[in-house]
């Protein structure tokens, strides 16, 4: 049976007195879902309950502040007073109903607190202008007592364990780090002294928790910064922690300047299983369970890690944002039904903007209370039909377009029990996703298409490929609702843009043989940059080694890609003064370095004046100078306008525009707009 494929991953594991039903962990990630005074909200509750319903064996609740004056963002949950216990207890009780064990991550943010006051071991931080006040010994001991008090509150709330947050440049991590900790007293200097702060916290927690309550420590196996802790010291630290009564080691990585290493984006090819070599080394050195994480997507790979003894538990964060039923689908032997994370970093971008946690492919993430967990299932099959809105009957829903918006609208409407017919003029579903999956490291988008195809088939959606949704045909079906998901097109305002050598990014990526030797890409956003990397031949791939120093630039290495052949001569032209302006800072830095090393010429602050059969004339806005570029092919990758704006007007049935047909955007925009509109039927 397929279930047996994952017998190791789905087997129980013992952490002191706590037995976890499987090896899948939902790790701590900030959500911005708590109340402003730090209590668990109903929204936060439903978010975690949804992952427990999905089968995660252990849920480690997000970092909770152990002192009133340590908050990293306005909606930081707190566990520093008895008044918080009741809301935590209510959450824990609900998680226990689904067989999940529960820990909470206890944190003091130290110099990394985005909300002052900041404190630090020795006044060293990435915030060079405000590194944080140096802690006195008296203050150190008071903070240690605050950790112990928080641990007791956690136990009183019904938690099964606590996790001490010792990574990512926060206070415990700062004391452990040879980079952050330059103290000259008993809490700094050599390895033994740098460990003292944490070991005394563990001792104080053990005294209030008793001998049987599990204490886990999460720390960075590698700080990925010059002079920071490396693997050798991390192995030694694991031995010391085990000797001092720690019951499990939860490995993470990095400090803030190298945060790219903790949640690597799609553009880093080395990200898969980044910490597995570290967890393997630590596990050989200790007899307590060891967690691994980062870049693990496929359950087959997770099973292999456990089977080979390279780790005892697998932390799957972003994968369970994308599909909270990940564990259930593995348990039922249907891993092919998992909706996979794209590593697009949208979840992180929202948190950086102080918005609540979101996911590009799962519109319910962070909004579970709003949508009532409509996708809750442990079958591995499409979610049980959620039922119709009160007073509504089964409606006939027609979807025009099989791109991301159309696919999501069809799925969501079918889940509610409506009859759904989807038209796609091309011979395959996916729309623009078929082009988006082509650039390097974007293969997960292809798996998203496959997931939608499988969902629609099992939900009974009628799909008509190679058929355009003509008005007469749609009218004949007598729909109650028509979703127009017919996408958008590039605006051809430039003189010469109607010539035959001018094609869209979609056409270029889906028919690469049509692209000539000298290529000018008009538009330097994400789509233009990714097309540039693809057509450059990808002679090199980029590896990131972390940060040069605290607050310093990332260190990249360009490695020759075996078997790569020289590609096209690529120039990217962008009117804005920045290429990749629609990417987050880490992705942007990575992609720009990659383009440079692959010989792509970048022309920001340039306007295209005219296109001919062989050339492109551009005007540099900064130096006010014209230049002529050779161009066999011109690829349009910017400036979109919705299709079919005049179509289907004045109909008796409801017509709803979604995705790019309403407003050009990204996958996340298409999926969310479609889901919300389908939910209103």
Features of the shown structure:
single chain, 681 residues, alpha/beta, TIM Barrel, Rossmann fold, FAD/NAD(P)-binding domain, 3 domains, eight-stranded parallel beta barrel, five-stranded parallel β-sheet, 20 helices, 29 strands, globular
Can you characterise this structure?
The protein is of the alpha/beta class. It folds into three domains: 2-371, TIM Barrel, CATH 3.20.20.70; 396-489 and 641-679, NAD(P)-binding Rossmann-like Domain (Rossmann fold); 492-638, FAD/NAD(P)-binding domain (3-Layer(bba) Sandwich), CATH 3.50.50. It contains 20 helices and 29 strands. The strands form eight sheets. The chain has an eight-stranded parallel β-barrel, surrounded by six helices. It has a five-stranded parallel β-sheet with strand order 15-14-13-16-29, with helices on one face. The chain has a five-stranded parallel β-sheet with strand order 18-27-19-22-23. Strand 10 (248-252), helix 7 (276-285) and strand 11 (290-292) form a beta-alpha-beta unit. The longest helix is centred in the first third of the chain and has 20 residues, at 137-156.
């Amino acid at each position: 049976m397929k279930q047996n494929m994952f017998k190791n991953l789905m087997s129980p594991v013992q952490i002191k007195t706590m037995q976890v039903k499987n090896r899948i962990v939902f790790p701590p990630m900030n959500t911005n879902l708590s109340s402003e005074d730090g209590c668990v909200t109903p929204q936060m509750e439903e978010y975690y309950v949804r992952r427990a319903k999905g089968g995660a064996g252990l849920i480690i609740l997000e970092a909770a502040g152990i002192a009133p004056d340590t908050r990293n963002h306005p909606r930081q949950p707190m566990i520093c007073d008895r008044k918080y216990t009741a809301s935590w207890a209510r959450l824990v009780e609900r998680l226990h109903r689904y067989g999940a064990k529960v820990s909470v991550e206890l944190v003091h943010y130290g110099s990394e607190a985005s909300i002052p006051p900041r404190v630090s071991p020795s006044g060293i931080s990435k915030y060079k202008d405000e590194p944080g006040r140096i802690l006195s010994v008296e203050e150190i001991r008071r903070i240690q007592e605050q950790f112990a008090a928080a641990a007791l509150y956690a136990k009183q709330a019904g938690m099964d364990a606590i996790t001490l947050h010792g990574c990512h440049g926060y206070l415990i991590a700062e004391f452990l780090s040879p980079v952050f900790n330059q103290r000259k007293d008993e809490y700094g200097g050599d390895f033994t002294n740098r460990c003292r702060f944490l070991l005394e916290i563990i001792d104080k927690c053990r005294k209030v928790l008793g001998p049987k309550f599990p204490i886990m420590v999460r720390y960075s196996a590698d700080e990925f910064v010059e002079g920071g802790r490396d693997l050798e010291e991390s192995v030694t630290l694991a031995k010391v922690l085990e000797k001092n009564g720690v019951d499990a080691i939860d490995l993470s990585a990095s400090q803030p300047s190298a945060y790219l290493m903790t949640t690597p984006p799609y553009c880093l090819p080395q990200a898969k299983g980044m910490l597995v070599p570290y967890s393997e080394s630590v596990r050989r050195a200790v007899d307590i369970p060891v967690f691994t994480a980062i870049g693990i997507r496929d359950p087959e790979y997770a099973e292999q890690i456990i089977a080979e003894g390279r780790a005892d538990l697998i932390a799957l964060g972003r994968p369970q944002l994308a599909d909270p039923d990940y564990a259930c689908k593995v348990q039922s032997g249907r891993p092919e039904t998992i909706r996979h994370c794209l590593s697009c970093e949208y979840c992180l971008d929202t948190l950086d903007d102080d918005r609540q946690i979101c996911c590009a492919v799962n519109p319910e993430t962070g909004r579970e209370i709003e949508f009532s967990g409509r996708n809750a299932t442990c079958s591995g099959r499409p979610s049980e039909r959620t039922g119709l809105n009160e007073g509504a009957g089964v409606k006939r829903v027609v979807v025009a377009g099989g791109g991301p918006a159309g696919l999501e609208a069809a799925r969501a409407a079918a889940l509610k029990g409506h009859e759904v017919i989807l038209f796609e003029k091309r011979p395959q579903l996916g729309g623009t996703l078929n082009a988006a999956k082509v650039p390097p490291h974007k293969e997960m988008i292809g798996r998203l298409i496959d997931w939608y195809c499988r969902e629609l088939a099992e939900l009974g959606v009628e799909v008509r490929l190679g058929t355009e949704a003509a008005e007469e045909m749609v009218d004949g079906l007598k729909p109650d609702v028509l979703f127009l998901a017919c996408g958008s097109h590039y605006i051809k305002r430039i003189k010469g843009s109607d010539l035959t050598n001018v094609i869209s990014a979609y056409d270029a990526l889906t028919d690469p043989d049509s692209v000539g030797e000298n290529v000018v890409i008009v538009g330097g956003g994400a789509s233009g940059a990714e097309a540039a990397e693809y057509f450059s031949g990808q002679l090199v791939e980029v590896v990131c080694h972390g940060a040069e120093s605290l607050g310093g630039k990332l260190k990249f290495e360009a490695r020759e890609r075996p078997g790569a052949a020289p590609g096209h001569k690529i120039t990217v032209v962008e009117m804005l003064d920045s290429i990749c302006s629609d990417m987050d800072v880490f992705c942007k830095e990575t992609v720009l370095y990659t383009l440079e090393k692959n010989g792509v010429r970048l022309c920001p602050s340039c306007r295209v004046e005219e296109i001919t059969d062989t050339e492109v004339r551009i005007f540099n806005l900064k130096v006010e100078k014209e230049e002529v570029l050779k161009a066999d092919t011109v690829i349009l990758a910017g400036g979109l306008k919705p299709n079919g704006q005049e179509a289907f007007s004045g109909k008796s049935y409801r017509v709803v525009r979604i995705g790019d047909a309403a407003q050009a955007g990204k996958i996340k925009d298409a999926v969310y707009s479609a889901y919300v509109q389908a939910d209103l039927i």
